[in-house]
Amino acid sequence: MDRSIKSSCGHAGWIRSVTGVLLGIAAPVLYVVLEYKTHCLSGCLFDPIPSPAHLLALVVVPLAHVFALTGARWQSNWLLYPANLLRWPALIAPVYYSLATGLHLQGLALVASPFLMVSWAVHGFVWPAGGPERLEAESMVNAVLIVQPALAIVGWWCMRPYARACATGLSATLQPTLRCLGAVLAILCLSLVELPLVRAYLAIRDFAEGEREAHRNNFPLKWRDHEVAMVSRLFHAPPQFSSDGVLDCEGPVDVFGPAVRLMNRWSSPTTMWRHLTAPQHVRWGELLQQIRTSNPNADTSPRSWRGLSPWEERELMKSSAMPESAISGQN
Fold it and tell me: Label partner for 182 (CA 20 to 30 A): which of 102, 221, 236, 297?
């Protein structure tokens, strides 16, 4: 084991190591599991994992720290190479998500989390079916999800002794090469992952706001399957996009991801929804109808790669129980 780790094995070093494991490994895993299961964050701010590629980007964070822990202990090249390659991606991903979430919201969530935890504990940490108790549980999960990217940055800093230990096992030229390569790949991969979502957002926005009136009849021909799925989800979403409360979870407020939230200057709901409230809801039906006309085989049902949120499924059940004439009249 590296000397820097041995020298920090005192009480302060032990606390730092435990904090690094909790915030650098356990917290990012909890972030993915909670959002994947509950869809809470996508129901109030933005969708942090709108695609499988986003999921891989988030999994890199705890994986990098696991490699650092094991590589510092055994000094095997099979562990040292990925530990150094993923060192900067493990910081870039939480910084990116922290910026997308908003520093002001993270500060509020950090202050509110203890109070929400106590309120949830009074009800036995259950997930109620409805009522005020469910709102408390949802608010607690959202507070945890909002603050976790910032906590992951703290975890990255606490894992520095193990990262230094992994660096000593490589040559003076290989170690910085791997870390620079990892940083470049992380930025490039995030850009490529976000590009289709940004394109989909701009396409939907242009159509909805009428900025490309002359091209509206031909535009649906160019739409891809994931873009059609987004339009359908937004069309069938419950009409709650006034966002009466920041931590309300009646989503999806945003199906596009962190880049679109940054483009909209952290507004929740996004700028699109400020233009697409109930009086202009017909635009979604018009767009879906043109997609069906241009491509009869297009799947215009609301769907997502990780499934729909409970709120979306409940809303679809309500709409399916309504007569077809009533639904077409609303659209």
Answer: 102
pLDDT score, position 119: 64
Q: Which residue has the higher pLDDT, 141 or 11?
A: 141
Q: Contact at 8 Å (CB) between 45 and 257?
A: no
Contact assessment for residue 260 and residue 45, using Cβ atoms and an 8 Å cutoff: no
Q: Which of 233, 220, 238 is nearest to 293 (CA)?
A: 220
Residue 214 tokens read as: 């002359």
CA atoms of 62 and 17, how far apart (whole Å)? 14
Q: What burial class does residue 254 get, using C-beta atoms within 10 Å of its C-beta: 0-12 exposed, 13-18 middle, 19+ buried?
A: buried
Distances (CA, A) of 281 to 176, 274, 286: 53, 11, 9
Q: What is the pTM of this model?
A: 0.83
Alpha carbons 324 and 321: distance in angstroms, whole number: 9
Q: Using alpha carbons, select from 173, 188, 174, 272 the residue that is nearest to residue 230.
A: 272
| DSSP secondary structure letter of residue 23 | I
Which of helix, strand or coil describes residue 257?
coil
Is residue 91 a contact partner of residue 61, using CB atoms and an 8 Å limit?
no
Chain segment 36-66, per-residue pLDDT in tens = 988 888 877 888 999 999 999 999 999 999 9
Nearest 5°: CA angle at 207, between 310 and 259?
60
pLDDT, tens digit (0-9, with 9 covering 90-100), for 65-74 = 999 999 988 8
